[in-house]
Write a structure and sequence with these properties.
Elements (H helix, E strand, L loop, with lengths): L3 H6 L6 E5 L2 E5 L1 H7 L1 H9 L6 E3 L5 H13 L9 H11 L2 H13 L6 H10 L3 H13 L1 H4 L10 H8 L9 H14 L1 H4 L3 H5 L9 H8 L3 H4 L2 H20 L20 E6 L2 E2 L2 E2 L3 E5 L4 E4 L12 E5 L2 E5 L2 E2 L2 E2 L3 E5 L4 E4 L11 E5 L2 E5 L11 E5 L4 E5 L10 E5 L2 E5 L2 E2 L2 E2 L3 E5 L4 E5 L10 E5 L2 E9 L2 E10 L4 E5 L10 E5 L2 E5 L11 E5 L4 E5 L10 E6 L24
Parallel strand pairs: 1-3
Antiparallel strand pairs: 1-2, 4-7, 4-33, 5-6, 7-8, 9-10, 10-13, 11-12, 13-14, 15-16, 16-17, 17-18, 19-20, 20-23, 21-22, 23-24, 25-26, 26-27, 27-28, 29-30, 30-31, 31-32
Length: 571
């Protein structure tokens, strides 16, 4: 049976002609009307006696693609045609092609082109593409500024970028450097903008020494009275905060000079158990303001001793226990829509399991079903929503902990029958084999493991019946373990995550009570310090780091809720 496109190709039953430059395209009006309101209006309102409709501002090649899309519903977008095709589709209001072009451009966003794509959305409006491009600039700003596109920004665009809380920079010193580089590219026209740009720098997040030695000594700043006012205001705020709040981490106000940017990463802590009660709460730690917040999203069902991972915009909650029942279920939360989805069940019930991510797969290792400590392991593919069994571990491991490093999974300790274990093993996904590595110095269960700087760290836990605060690290190159500075307090069944070269631990218990106390470890100084206590006190909570999402504002401490510095000097 012939399709409408077959009829078009042979010119049968065509009732109109689209004239583009000197090329004529015989078409069926009903087909074009179905894909675009522009053609609906054109055929209804334009009066013509010869059924020829002239289309301007579109090339014949682009019109050929548009007509083929109208008849077939498919379009081939390439880097050579995407710009002209999207402009034409926007002009002709062809939603399907606009979406296809937007998807193509989004997939090819990179450090070199994200600014031009963001500016392109001013010419060819696409709210979705504009948001994606702007978020890409925000998240990768320190890489974007290494390319020439940033030097072509207008002062209005640069001011908008630098003024956003979402701007991901390690420190505000780099923001000031960006301003100076941008001005130096065209000094005659741009030097006049130094004050408006400097006002977007969070100077109070630097130091008095930096401001004195790097900002005040700059010639443009020295010669501009408005810049003097900005610097003096920052000094007043810093002086007031130092008097009232001696802890530097808490130098945070809602005023721009002392207003912290939004974090690129936050720590999620969920669930947990107190006596026989399992929790649905989710708490988030914002390290830039040293504050914990309980978010409005709650676990779909209460869980304890489960696993949590973040992958591609979703937080997955794996296994665990609920009202004394061990679970084989997994659910995920879509952070963009705040909606829950039930995913495929695991092959085994797993409480006190170990969970990690490697090469886009979620791995669930060991744990406790209802009767035994498990040596079984399986991995989950998000694309197929299927769990697949992999090679079993050499030992059964309940209440162990794992991490990924250099394409392999390391799992350490755990309960082997009734006793804490010193053993550790490594999984290679290419060979689907487990290999024993050197034993830890201390036998551990209910501890936590993390990979950082080409090492594996094992922290805290339980040595038979004694809670631990000791820490040790494994070097794969030498296959050796070394002891490090212990935590401030012993704890088991706690949460451990790494953000910006710092280890954060929270929760857990020491048998006598659950702990609200949280602390942070600096691996370079080999030192632990206390941070703000959490709001929740449960054993068997689970955690993960959520990073790089466009709606981080939904999960960070509200910047407008920070104290306001008043001109009187009061906070």
């Amino acid at each position: 049976m012939e399709t409408p496109n077959d009829l078009r190709l042979v010119g049968q039953f065509c009732d109109a002609i689209l004239q583009v430059e000197d090329i004529q395209f015989p078409i069926h009006r009903i087909i074009l009307c179905d894909c675009s309101t522009y053609f609906q209006a054109l055929f209804v309102h334009q009066i013509t006696t010869d059924k020829v409709f002239h289309i301007t501002l579109v090339s014949p090649d682009i019109m050929q693609i548009i007509i083929e899309f109208a008849y077939t519903g498919s379009v081939t977008v390439t880097k050579d045609n995407v710009h002209d095709l999207m402009v034409a589709a926007e002009m002709l209001n062809i939603i399907g092609i606009i979406q296809a072009c937007s998807n193509f451009i989004s997939e090819h966003l990179c450090l070199q082109n994200c600014i031009s794509i963001w500016q392109f959305t001013d010419i060819c409006p696409s709210s979705e593409l504009q948001c994606k491009a702007f978020h890409y600039i925000m998240e990768h700003f320190e890489g974007v500024i290494n390319f020439k596109e940033y030097l072509q920004l207008s002062v209005m665009d640069l001011t908008e970028i630098l003024g956003k809380d979402e701007l991901n920079v390690k420190n505000e010193r780099s923001v000031f450097d960006v301003i100076l580089r941008w001005i130096a590219h065209n000094p005659k026209e741009r030097e006049q903008h130094i004050a408006v740009l400097l006002s977007e720098v969070r100077l109070c997040k630097t130091s008095i020494e930096y401001i004195e030695n790097n900002v005040m000594t700059n010639q443009l700043v020295k010669l501009n009275p408005e810049c003097h006012e900005i610097v003096n205001n920052s000094f007043k705020i810093m002086s007031s905060l130092t008097k009232h709040i001696p802890k530097p981490l808490k130098l945070c106000l809602s005023n721009t000079p002392a207003r912290p940017r939004l974090p690129n990463s936050v720590i999620w802590v969920s669930g947990g158990q107190k006596e026989s009660y399992a929790s649905c709460d989710i708490e988030v730690y914002d390290h830039l303001v040293d504050r914990w917040i309980c978010i409005r999203d709650k676990l779909k069902d209460p869980r304890a001793h489960h696993g949590t991972v973040f992958l591609d915009g979703y937080v997955y909650f794996v296994g665990g226990s609920q009202l004394m029942v061990n679970l084989d279920s997994m659910v995920r939360l879509d952070l963009k829509t705040h909606t829950w989805q039930e995913m495929m069940y695991m092959h085994y019930r797993r409480c006190h399991l170990s969970v990690t991510i490697l090469n886009g797969f979620i791995y669930a290792l060991g744990g406790f079903d209802d009767y035994f400590g498990l040596n079984t392991a399986e991995r989950y593919c998000p694309e197929t929503n299927q769990w697949t069994l992999i090679a079993p571990m050499i030992e059964g491991r309940r209440s162990a902990s794992c991490a990924t490093l250099d394409g392999k999974i390391y799992i350490c300790g755990g309960l082997n029958r009734r006793y804490s274990s010193r053993t550790a093993e490594c999984y290679d996904p290419e060979t689907n084999q487990w290999t024993l590595i050197a034993n830890m110095n201390i036998s551990r269960s209910q501890h936590r493991v993390v990979a950082y700087n080409n090492q594996i760290y094992a922290i805290g836990g339980l040595r038979n019946i004694r809670p631990l605060k000791c820490v040790e690290t494994y070097m794969p190159k030498t296959n050796t373990w070394s002891m490090l500075c212990p935590m401030c307090i012993p704890r088991r069944n706690f949460c451990l995550e790494v953000i910006e070269d710092q280890f954060y631990v929270v929760g857990g218990s020491n048998f006598r009570s659950e702990s609200y106390h949280a602390e942070v470890y600096d691996p370079y100084a080999d030192r632990w310090c206390s941070i703000s206590d959490s709001n929740s006190s449960y054993s068997g909570m689970s955690s993960c780091v959520v990073s790089g999402i466009p709606n981080m504002v939904d999960f960070a401490f509200p910047r407008d809720s920070l104290p306001l510095f008043k001109k009187s000097g009061n906070v």
